[in-house]
Amino acid sequence: PLQLLQPKPIPKRSGTSQRKPREPQIARSLIKEIFSHFVKMPVTRDAFKIVEKCSERYFKQLSNDLEAYANHAGRKTVEVADLEVLMRRQGLVTDKMPLHVLIERYLPLEYRKLLIPIALSGNKVVP
Fold first, then answer.
1. Phi, psi of 115 (to 5 degrees)
2. CA–CA separation, 66 vs 30, rounded Å?
3. Which residues fall in a coiled-coil region (predicted)?
4. pTM score > 0.70 for this model?
5. Residues 6 or more apart whose Cβ sits within 8 Å of residue 94
6. CA dihedral 65, 71, 74, 75 (to 10 degrees)
7. Burial letters for 14-45: b for 16+ Cβ neighbours within 10 Å, e otherwise?
8. pLDDT tens digits for the chain (127 residues)?
9. Residues 55-73, buried b or exposed e (16+ Cβ, 10 A)?
10. Distance CA 68, CA 89 (A)
11. Element (H or E) spanning 125, and its range?
12. Which of 19, 88, 124, 125 has the highest count of CB atoms within 10 angstroms of its CB?
């Protein structure tokens, strides 16, 4: 006797995806904007790809170090002091070059206002 062919049931997906979560990435446009600010000359695509990879690795290492400093201090939150210790270890912050001087020198005014309470411009104090 002939039997009717039954379609195989399709397993239903649960609400979660089976894909492996991707790591967040820094926007290419942001890396390009920052890099072009300091380089001031044309850069080939191959060279820029290397700059992107280096930037990704640098920020990944930076975040791992800051996380380790906070964990070592028994905290779950990274604080400004952690960043300052890291920058001291890298030789960026010294007794002659404090963190707020680096902020004033390299960041635009809108970021300076967020990071330091009073942004200095030459001899004038701008609240």
1. -95, -30
2. 22
3. none
4. no
5. 88
6. 80
7. eeeeeeeeeeeeeeeeebeeeeeeeeeeeeee
8. 555 666 677 777 666 666 777 777 788 888 888 888 888 888 899 999 999 999 999 989 999 999 999 999 999 999 988 988 999 998 988 888 888 888 888 877 777 777 776 444 444 544 4
9. beeeeeeeeebbeebbeee
10. 14
11. strand 124-126
12. 88
- CB contact at 8 A, 85 and 100: no
Burial of 104 (0-12, 13-18, 19+ CB in 10 A): middle
Nearby residues of 86 by Cβ (< 8 Å), 6 or more positions away: 62, 65, 66, 69
Assign 119 to helix, strand or coil: strand
Closest CA relative to residue 60, chosen from 37, 86, 94, 26 = 26
d(Cα 93, Cα 91) in Å, to the nearest integer? 6
Polymer length of the chain:
127
Contact (Cβ atoms closer than 8 angstroms) between residue 43 and residue 51 = yes
Q: How far apart are CA 72 and CA 98, in angstroms?
A: 23
